[in-house]
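dumping this here before i forget
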Amino acid sequence: MTISESIATWLQGYSIMEINTDELKAEAETFGLFETPDDSSEEFLDGSILRTEYYIFLIRRNAQLESERISNQQFIEGLSEWVREQELAGKYPENMNIEKVWVAYAYMQEREEQEAIYQVSLGIERTIE
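structure:
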């Protein structure tokens, strides 16, 4: 299983049905997960490496009405809180030696007539041995 697949499966714990890898479909209520080229590594004397990586989680939702946009903000705030709760409980994506997960930022990336695309940046720290 790839890291993206593991993160997507983990995110489905927040009442998300299907998350596509490297794709965001054109209809509302779709989700896509994209790995970014931003990462850093710290090597230790024992040869292990602590790697920090970032993933972009895109969410396309209806956003024409004020009530829809408020609902979208509630969804994103809830997701951010869920990620914090998972971090505190030590519940991480499986089989990736992940030591920390956090939401770096979240915002409306793009607004179309009927829908908006929201971007949530997820950071992870994982150990490579």
